[in-house]
Structures are given as structure tokens and as C-alpha cells.
Amino acid sequence: MTPEQAYEIISKIAVMYDGFKVEGEDGKARLKIWMQHLRSMPYAPVSQNVDRYIQHQSFPPQIADIAAKEVTEADIVSTMKRWEEEVKAERQAGSIKQFFDYLPPHLQQKYAYLQKEKNQ
Q1: d(CA 48, CA 43)
Q2: Which of 3, 56, 67, 86 is 20 to 30 A from 115, comparing alpha carbons?
Q3: Using one digit for the tens of pLDDT, what is the confidence trace for 30-75?
């Protein structure tokens, strides 16, 4: 993100939380650290994270609370290759799973319910 966007994020936090001080020596140090970290993050997801955070928390965020990583095509390809390797290893071990088996438990429950409704 640009320096202007980073200042916008910091300003929004400072306005919403009295405990997020940007004055004095500590404030200058805080600004420097926040700017350093925010500059390496994508603006839109961080801004959305700040808005969500403000809706649910009554104390100022830490950088980790609002951080966002820019997902690159290389990240996506790497993740897909890792998944392919995992599936290949499972199949070689004799495990034959359906896509349903890879879903998290809460989605398995929803899917099972929908299948049950469909079959009635």
C-alpha cells in the first residue's frame, strides 16, 4: 500500500480508539513501526480487516489483528501442487476419498443436510 493509504488506516484506528496514541515519542515510534508493516500489505484487505475489527472489538488492534497477505499466483500454484501431492499420497496408500471427505466438519454437516433434503 502507499504511504497515504497506510496513514489512512492508522488515522482510522486512532480516531476510533483513544488508547491508540500517535503523539509523543511513543507515538512516533508506533507510527514508524506501523508504517513499516502496513507498506508491505495490500490496502483493500487491510482496510476491510480494520472495519471488521472496529465492529467487534473495543480495544485498539495490534498489527497482526488486521494484517493481510497479498496472495500471488505463485502462492495459489504452490498450494494446488501441495494438495495434489497430498491426494496422490493418500491414493497410493489406498485411501479413496470423495470431495466431501476433504470438507471441514461444519461444511460436511451442511452438505449432508442438503443431500438428505434433495433425496426426500
Answers
A1: 9
A2: 86
A3: 999 999 999 999 999 999 999 999 999 999 999 999 999 887 888 8
